[in-house]
Amino acid sequence: MKKIMENLIKRITIDPEIAHGKPTIRNTRYAVSYILEYLAGGDSIEDLLEEFKDLEKEDVLACLAYAAQTVNFKDFRVSAA
């Protein structure tokens, strides 16, 4: 599982000249956050692949892997409701 995630994350790049330095899918201008927002909004991976013809399933999975890695390495605090 770890090796698969590492390979997926290689699809994510950060370039200050693209998307204001936000993490993006390699060779695109799609920010990881943009793809995650679609998924959080209820779109499926298949929906995204249909909407964005230049994406591959592994690109979307890479966004999820990147998000998982980020959450694991950050100290997030959730305030009480």
UniProtKB/TrEMBL annotation:
Top-level taxonomic group: Bacteria
Membrane spanning residue stretches: none
Alphabetized Pfam families for the sequence: DUF433
Protein name in UniProt: Antitoxin
Organism of derivation: Rhodonellum psychrophilum GCM71 = DSM 17998
